[in-house]
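Dear colleague,

Thank you for sharing your sequence with our group. We've completed the structure prediction you requested, and as agreed, I am returning the results in plain text so they can be pasted directly into your records. Please verify that the sequence below matches your submission; if there's any discrepancy, let me know and we will rerun it promptly.
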Amino acid sequence: SPSPSSSSPPPTPGTLQVTPKGLTLSAVKGKPASGTFIVTAVGGPVNYVITSPNGKVAVSPSSGLLPAAGSWVTVTVTVQSNVAFSARVVISPGNLVVTVRFSIKA
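Please find the predicted structure tokens below.
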């Protein structure tokens, strides 16, 4: 039987890196606030999915493909809430977390 090493392996899937790991946003009551974080592929291509914990936190784009190592995407987080809160946005694979802290401007 042929040895497994005779065929070239598929490209190694990459891992994700997220910067920054936290966003602090504030807005006047009733107005939206937004910030961004960057998701980078390390070591190879990655299909990513970003999940938001609740309806007050919107992320765009919420999924996509980083086609090669070093590819990156800027993700926009938009918050609209009448109360201050803290939430965790989860980026998969890897279960990376960006903590979003939102406060109301007086």
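Summary note from our side: The two ends are 73 Å apart (CA to CA).

Kind regards,
the structure core
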